[in-house]
Write the structure tokens for this entry.
Amino acid sequence: MHRITIGIHRRYAGSFLQAVHEAGIVELTPITGDDHLKPLITPVRRDAIRQDIAAVQSRAERAVEILTSQVQGERGRIAGFFLPIRPEPVGVPERSPEEILHAASIHEEMIGEVLTLRTRRSAIEEHLIRLDEEEEQLTLFGCLSERLPPRSDHRFIVIRAGLIPTDECEDLDAVFEEEGITDAVVSSVCRCMEEGMVVIIAVHRRSAEAVDELLRARAFAEFTFTRREETVSDALADLTSIRGDLHQEREGIDERLHRIAGDHLRDLAAAAEELALARERIDAAALAGSTRDLRLYKGWIRKKDIPHLTRIGDEHAGATLIYRSVPGEDGDAEVPVSYDHPWWLAPFAFLTTTFARPRYREIDPTIFIAPILIITFGVMLGDAGYGLLLAIIAAALLAGPASAPGSTRDLAIVLVACGISGTIFGILQGGFFGDLLPRFFGASVPFAAIDPLMDPLILLTGALIFGIIHLNIGLGIASYRHLSTGKPGEMLRSVGVWFLLQPCAAILLFAFFGWAEFSQAVILAAGFGAAVAAALIFLVEGPLGFFSITGFLGDWLSYTRILALALATAGIAMTINILAEMIGSIHPALVIVAVLFSIAGHAANLVLQALGGFIHALRLQYVEFFGTFYTGGGRVFLPFASGRTTTRLLEDDQ
């Protein structure tokens, strides 16, 4: 990554910036932050047309959102999720912000109609909600009286009608009498339609405030009737008529929005995107500085993209481009980082970023994450049936909602790889939905080599061997980092002691438990080496060295979770099969119930074990492995890029 300062003749500023925007190779930064250039340049002011573009863009994007939701809503949420609409991009020519704004003005009338229709539709929805509430109130009020209360209070009498949502009925006459209110008449019905207590109270105006206070204490919800009719039945009939008219009007609005979407959604989405890109270019231009003849830009660029930048200068800046690039410093957190992975490794990069993006020229651990994640997940899942289902589900996501580039697509690709791994290791571990094949069909999984439930020590030994190798790879990377930066002493103090301690401790343990025979000289040498390594750890870290030793031991033992999850998958799957067999053996009619139980149980176990295996496989790398060498904390490279999705430049077709 290089820090770059670019200069072009100011007459080519617009075309050059647009070409850089389409190429997406430069991350622009404010040039006013450069103390060396600040006295020599004049900041570029933001173009006044930006405000007009922003206003039209906001309205256009809102209209696109409305039309898109209309189309997706008619297709259904499930269909919209698994088979999202991805229309073909609209071809557009290179245009200036003024030309883009003029082109967008053609859609202004249609945008206004869409926004008006949406506003009216929202008003209809709110009106229907109010009608439903009023219908409920009318129905409850009808439990006491067919005749509606007067629309305005009498000169002397105040009417209160509403609902008290209490679990038990209450004698309001007695309550009023206790409070000294004698000029109130109460009519009530308890638990009408299981809603609570419906009450109608007629009270003299002088006691209305005291009655209202007592009712508020009982969460009284007053009925508010807007009908002009005098009876409940007439009001309900009028309400039904109004609701029908509103539904009909809403259907008409939906039909009109659907027609507009079919005729104009692609073009409108293209116009909204072009407006957004024009706004981005105007904002980017304000990051530059200007002299009498030059327009100066500053930012970051990948070294491999510098030749592309020079070609842009030749083609779009009249060959007036000059630049100065300086490589970033190793480990500098201010230098942006861009991954440069091969196609098969690129989907795993988001897992590294989830933990921490590496600093500039720090060792990228993605190359280690990919194979280790796939292997450990496969062993933990360890069931061919579950692995096959996971791969199929992930592949379905790739064909639908995860088809567009992004983290969702990357995750789906990773899950496909994990599903295939789970299938392979499931075959080796003899699992196909647990013991489904031998229990119900008298068959066995071919090529099965180990059963976690029957031979857990073999899997445990393999997990611990894998763990010590994995940890030492991390220590080796840390050693390389220290040596490459000219810090051999730091390497010996922080890493070398572990390379001394581990073999010595292994010899002592094997000799103590009788797992291997060693000569007395070897045992003494191992004891001396372990003591020296431990002394160096305590010398460097002080009393905390004890926790470093126990922490390393704990990290190593953490790899036993590989066995634990493999046992959990096989054990729960076998339990589901046993219970299904017991249900089916009770009565032949319960076979269907047993099958449904088995499907639900295995589906739940797949979700549980896939989630657990993925999390724990990542944990072994994020905590145990990364803890030996990885720092992270790098900044993402954010190039000034158009990122077109609904449009394409016509010149790209040539």
Observations:
- The CA atoms of residues 12 and 28 lie 17 Å apart.
